[in-house]
Write a structure and sequence with these properties.
Number of helices: 13
Strand content: 35-45%
Radius of gyration: 42 Å
Structural class: mainly beta
Largest sheet: 5 strands, mixed
Mean pLDDT: 86
Distance between the termini: 159 Å
Length: 989
């Protein structure tokens, strides 16, 4: 955590019972249990010890001298009792005792209790990312990856499967996968944060399944599960899996300097809250980065011309961001991005020096539903007197200083206030500051102040703790709905649960105290908390302590490693605990069996899980509730009679929603089942609010709900579930106009059309030319002019249909046309007083747009009677809804194109500003001709026709005269010819 290890806490409000606390001396003595030079451990073939059954082969390993033999339960068998390394099998389920017998009888760390279960789940899913040759996805595409899945038996697996180097199923696994495929097995990859499911495609001839998953998503913690199908009485166990991300490029040059912590300092690890496989390890040997949970890693270095050798070996803190790595060096923050290393100073709105801490988020905030327009920070940076928050793109904002804090939190102006530790709360919108105040009380005290980024609100938490004269404590918040946290320094741990209603120092059993007095002291190195409430404290001497969230005591786990080993714990939030062994620049990762070690530690105390079953229906991490929406959860707890368990419901901001609860109880044969149903719903009338906007802001936000059994135990696998109920406008919620089945919708080839000026709101002498945006308005609905049109509105979330909108809505033509009307008057629809109209709403809003002047903020129903005059109820009613008869009617003299904007005006329908656009073209009108144009055209035709007749008359007269003339000539010639012929005949006679 940011700020480094600090001085011890020397007092507190719980100091009245020092014999039950971890004090400066008591905790140190306790933590050296098992400090001898000999220890033993065990391993299995299964990663993370997921299968521990009667079929499991357990590998025993004793490290140290004076070993004699293994002593095991009579129901178990050891391959070679005299060998320090051997195998163990326990074919009978139950708890079996295992201990090494040694010559030195003073050796106390002697036995473990192994919980061996029946072999119901024998097989596991093997997952590997397909190679480019196997993948059907081009290698250049990095937004998804193809996984290959098959089923394998860890007791008969190939070495390549056990060390996870296999790229295709061996023969035994291929045969086993085919058998399950024949039985109908279908694997599914389901993510943890968003509950997204990805389904596989089977390749039975190859013996595996393929599935495509995103590679860049922050929702990469998944669970692989299939159908409940058994083969040879064995099922396939659900397997956790982390989707890998592409390797981030951090190239180094030859002369670059290693980035190291001071010599002799303890290694420090930092991982991404949303992408836990991406992590950093800071040690005195360098800084190492991984994208696969330290299966592979590379060193991060700094250019020598920016950071000299001395400074590069004085790194005090590191932080992972979405786009790089932050380093705190001698009070200055540096950043390493993929292609550059630079200082974050005044040009980035950060101090040049004096920074004492940097901190990233502990819990993933990617699914947290912030208010519209807001973003959550990714990193906190602070000095003793100033607080900064960092966002993407190297944006840093100073949010406060101690002078402002004293005023906002109503602390004495004369007091000395300093910031020591900053941590992100379990609720992602809040950042918490641990402050020390001198002058607020008779002694130095610790306070907690919280800043809500979503609401821009400062709050002084209900927390008060006497503080030492100097120094601060580190803190980590638990994943919960109400503020719960652990605070620690080098030698003690303080808990504060449920908004500090339960607090104190962790207590230890008296028997362990007496044993601790024989050992040497140590101090705290790490404190880790996972999503399931498991907390592990690692000491510098490699002793580990376990506690469960919201419990007041802890247990020491059996010794696993020697004090001389340089190790650090890597707690994957998906539930796996790893040990990283550091040897210079080499890092080796091994699994740690946390669950079985806890069982062994608490076996004698009979600390069992008080409930048999705890189930609930709270599947999603975020639920969105609009006005009038509701969500119902059920929770079931099954327990043994007389324990009296129930389901506790913790709620943050309960004022946002109404709630009803119903509990059913039944008992049979000493087993009790208690079912609890909780309904959260929104019910509020905004129609009479004097300030509609402020009322919406006050009633929107995020309610956090947590379900957990009223009692829990250290062996309970999980005991809580958290979800966020977002009260407000759901993202991607919108409305569309439903096109009637009888209405065609076609895209035409025109881009502009004209509207006659006389048809506009403000008539003009010129026609208006409109550019029709096909992408914005969509296709035109062709409507017959004689049929009234009633728009039906559908509500959608993205592409998912929600419901048909029955609320009141208004519409207007976006280009200013007013030549449409309505077929109902105010009297006909049943108004009790004059309704709002565009004309009445325009008065006093001449400079506002149509979208601004009328909406849910000022809508008033005409169906509610008021004192005074009724008004003119014969006016047309311009408001529509799903159930009413009011409809649009069109001009009967001409056709036209109309583009309408629709807006919901019901103040109790939605937090969203719901509006949409639709376009209409009327058809079916045979337009009557223009008399003037027809007369003019007729005169023109008649004139042309008359002209043709006149011209034809004179033409034909001329032709007639020519014909007569020719005929006359012909007749004279014929007479002369006749005379000549007669004369010639007479002569012949």
């Amino acid at each position: 955590m940011g700020g480094g290890l600090l001085g011890p806490l020397l007092g507190g409000p719980m100091a009245r019972a020092p014999e039950r606390l971890w004090g400066t001396r008591g905790l140190g003595l306790l933590l050296c249990l098992g400090g001898c030079c000999c220890l033993w451990r065990y391993k299995t073939n299964v990663e993370n010890y997921a299968v521990f059954t009667t079929r499991t082969t357990i590998y025993l390993e004793y490290e140290g001298a004076e070993f004699v033999q293994w002593e095991v339960s009579t129901l178990c068998t050891v391959a070679n009792k005299s060998s320090p390394t051997t195998t163990l099998n326990c074919p009978v389920p139950g708890t079996h005792t295992i201990r090494p017998k040694v010559d030195n009888e003073t050796f106390e760390n002697v036995e473990r209790y192994m919980p061996i279960s029946e072999h119901l789940n024998c097989f596991l899913w093997y997952v590997v990312k397909s190679s480019p040759a196997q993948s059907s996805i081009p290698s250049s595409k990095n937004d998804s990856q193809e996984l290959i899945l098959w089923i394998y038996d860890p007791e008969s697996a190939e070495p390549s499967e056990l060390n996870h180097t296999a790229t295709s199923p061996p023969r035994n696994s291929k045969t086993l996968s085919k058998q399950f495929w024949n039985l109908g097995q279908e694997p599914v990859v389901q993510t943890y944060f968003r509950n997204t499911k990805y389904f596989a495609t089977a390749f039975p001839e190859l013996g595996f399944w393929k599935i495509n998953v995103p590679s860049m998503s922050d929702d990469i913690i998944t669970n692989i599960h299939g159908k409940a199908i058994a083969f040879q009485d064995c099922f396939v166990l659900d397997s956790p899996f982390i989707i890998s991300r592409p390797e981030e490029p951090f190239p180094n040059n030859v002369n670059d300097n290693s980035l190291c912590s001071a010599a002799g300092s303890e290694p420090y690890i930092e991982w991404s809250a949303c992408i836990p496989t991406t992590a950093l390890l800071l040690s005195e040997f360098g800084t190492f980065h991984t994208n696969d949970g330290f299966v592979t890693y590379k060193e991060i270095k700094a250019p020598s011309h920016i950071l000299d050798f001395d400074l590069s070996h004085k790194v005090t803190d590191i932080v992972l961001t979405d786009d790089g790595i932050l380093f705190l060096i001698m009070g200055t923050v540096y950043k390493r991005e993929s292609n550059r290393f630079f200082k974050l100073g005044p040009e980035y709105n950060l101090p040049e020096t004096g920074i004492i801490g940097i901190q990233s988020r502990s819990w993933c905030s990617s699914a947290y539903p912030v208010q519209s327009g807001r973003k959550l920070s990714t990193v906190a940076i602070w000095t003793p007197s100033e607080q900064y928050l960092g966002y993407g793109g190297n944006v840093f904002i100073k949010i406060t200083d101690t002078t402002k804090l004293k005023k906002v939190l109503d602390l004495p102006v004369t007091a000395s206030l300093s910031i020591g530790t900053v941590c992100y709360d379990s609720r992602p919108s809040e950042v918490v500051l641990l402050m020390a105040c001198v002058g607020c009380s008779s002694s130095r005290v610790f306070y907690l102040s919280a800043y809500n980024e979503d609401r821009d609100l400062w709050v002084l938490r209900d927390f008060f703790l006497n503080a030492p004269l100097q120094g601060f404590m580190l803190m980590e918040f638990v994943y919960s709905a109400s503020p719960s946290m652990l605070m620690w320094d080098k030698e003690m741990v303080y808990y504060s649960y449920k908004n500090n209603t339960i607090n104190g120092f962790l207590i230890i059993p008296e028997s362990v105290k007496r044993q601790a007095e024989k050992a040497q002291g140590s101090t705290i190195h790490q404190l880790l908390i996972d999503y399931f409430g498991n907390t592990v404290i690692k000491m510098k001497n490699n002793v580990m302590i376990f506690l469960k969230v919201e419990m007041k005591d802890a247990v020491v786990l059996p010794r696993w490693e020697k004090e001389s080993k340089n190790i650090v714990l890597y707690l994957n939030p998906s539930g796996n605990l790893y040990i990283l062994y550091i040897n210079g620049s080499r890092i080796h990762r091994e699994d740690y069996p946390l669950k079985t070690e806890i069982f062994s530690s608490i076996h004698d105390s009979q600390d069992i899980c008080p409930y048999l079953v705890f189930k609930h229906s709270m599947d999603l991490n975020v639920y969105y509730l609009d006005m009038g929406d509701e969500v119902t959860f059920w929770a079931q707890v099954v327990y043994v009679e007389n324990l009296g368990l129930s389901t506790d419901v913790e709620i943050y901001r309960p004022e946002l929603l109404m709630q009803t609860t119903n509990v059913d109880y039944e008992i049979a044969r000493g087993i009790c089942t208690k079912n609890q149903t909780m309904k959260f719903y929104h019910k509020m009338d905004y129609s009479l609010e004097s300030n509609y906007t402020e009322a919406l802001i006050a009633s929107t936000g995020v309610m956090t709900v947590e379900l957990q059994p009223s009692m829990s135990g250290k062996m309970c696998s999980t005991n809580n579930k958290l979800t966020h109920l977002f009260v407000g406008c759901p993202p991607s919620r919108h409305i569309v106009i439903q096109r009637p089945s009888y209405v065609t919708c076609m895209k035409h080839n025109f881009t502009t059309y004209k509207i006659r000026g006389e048809y506009l709101w403000v008539p003009t002498t010129e026609d208006l030319v409109v550019n029709y945006d096909w992408d914005k308005y969509g296709c035109l609905m062709d409507l017959h002019y004689a049929i009234p049109f009633h728009p039906d509105i559908a509500l959608y979330n993205g592409s998912t249909f929600v419901k048909t909108v029955e609320a009141n809505f208004i519409l207007w033509e976006v280009h200013g046309r007013n030549d449409y009307s309505y077929n109902s008057s105010m009297k006909q629809v049943g108004c009790l007083r004059e309704a709002q109209t565009w004309i009445s709403m325009l008065k006093g809003h001449e400079n506002s747009t149509l979208d601004e002047i009328w909406g849910p903020q000022n809508y008033r129903s005409c169906f509610e009677s008021e004192l005074g005059r009724l008004g003119d109820l014969n006016q047309l009613y311009p408001i529509l809804n799903h159930s009413g008869y009011n409809s649009l009617i069109w001009p009967t003299e001409y056709s036209g194109i109309y583009v309408f904007r629709v807006k919901i005006v019901d103040p109790n329908f939605s937090f969203c500003d719901l509006n949409t656009v639709f376009a209409v073209r009327t058809y079916g009108i045979v337009e009557s001709p223009n008399i003037g144009k027809v007369a003019g055209f007729s005169v023109l035709i008649l004139s042309i026709f008359g002209g043709i007749l006149v011209i034809s008359y004179f033409r034909y007269v001329k032709i007639y005269r020519a014909i007569i003339y020719v005929d006359r000539l012909l007749s004279h010639d014929q007479q002369d010819q006749t005379r000549t012929t007669v004369h010639e005949l007479k002569k012949d006679q």
